[in-house]
Structure formats: structure tokens, C-alpha cells
């Protein structure tokens, strides 16, 4: 009798209703496609609500922090991502060594955004890496 008691839940589970949903196995990785969106600068926010960005200062980032979009593209090439959010902009540059996110904020209302913050991570697993090392690894020529 004890064995029948242990097998009863398995037998009942096999008789349960089906949702009719087919499940496909993921045998091959799904390719990732990056789509670039044209970078269009939005209208400047009202000056009354403007706050100046806090600027990062770390050794090895001197050529990046304070740079505009043109200067960053001359250093790293075409960004993988170019995203506007309000009057702020994020440029992402990537290579085998790392992924570099550069955040640009205008120094004054309606001003041209300048790099104020940098973040870096490994391309393989997303773990943080030294920002200055990533900058050196991604610089052109």
C-alpha cells in the first residue's frame, strides 16, 4: 500500500490538463542584432530645471572626460550605440577587450554635451574592468 501512495501523485500529474502550448528547445543560440537609431538631439530642457552634471575625475581618463562626441569618435571610431535621453547622451564603444559607456551631459542649458562619466565592463561576461585600461584598449591607432 505504501508504494501505491508514493506513485499516486505521478499518475495524477500525467493526467492533468494540457495548455496546448508547444515548447521548442533552444539548441542554437539566438543571434543578437544591434540596430542603430539616428542620433537626433532633443529640444533643450527649460533652464529653471537644469542641474549641472558631476564630472568624474580618475587617472587615465583625461582625454575622454570633457570630450565632445566628435573627439570621442576620433579616439574610438563609430559608437556601437548612440542614445539620447532628454539632453543627456550615451555613446557605447566596444571591442574584444571591453565595452565602454561614455555619458555626456551639457555643461549649461542648451550647451553641447560633454563626457562627464565613463563605465567599463568585459564584453564576455559584463564584469567591471578598469576604466583607464578599457580606454587604452579601445583607442584607435
From TrEMBL:
Domain of life: Bacteria
Protein name from the UniProt record: Lipoprotein
Organism listed in the record: Tsuneonella dongtanensis
Amino acid at each position: 500500500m505504501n508504494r501505491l501512495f508514493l506513485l499516486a501523485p505521478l499518475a495524477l500529474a500525467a493526467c492533468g490538463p494540457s495548455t496546448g502550448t508547444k515548447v521548442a528547445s533552444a539548441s542554437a543560440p539566438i543571434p543578437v542584432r544591434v540596430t542603430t537609431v539616428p542620433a537626433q538631439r532633443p529640444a533643450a530642457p527649460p533652464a529653471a530645471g537644469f542641474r549641472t552634471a558631476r564630472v568624474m575625475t580618475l587617472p587615465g581618463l583625461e582625454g575622454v572626460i570633457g570630450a565632445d562626441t566628435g573627439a570621442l569618435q576620433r579616439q574610438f571610431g563609430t559608437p556601437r550605440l548612440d542614445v539620447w535621453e532628454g539632453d543627456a547622451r550615451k555613446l557605447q564603444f566596444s571591442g574584444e577587450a571591453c565595452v565602454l559607456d561614455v555619458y555626456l551631459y551639457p555643461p549649461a542649458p542648451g550647451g553641447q554635451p560633454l563626457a562627464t562619466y565613463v563605465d567599463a565592463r568585459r564584453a564576455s561576461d559584463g564584469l567591471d574592468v578598469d576604466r583607464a585600461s578599457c580606454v587604452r584598449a579601445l583607442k584607435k591607432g
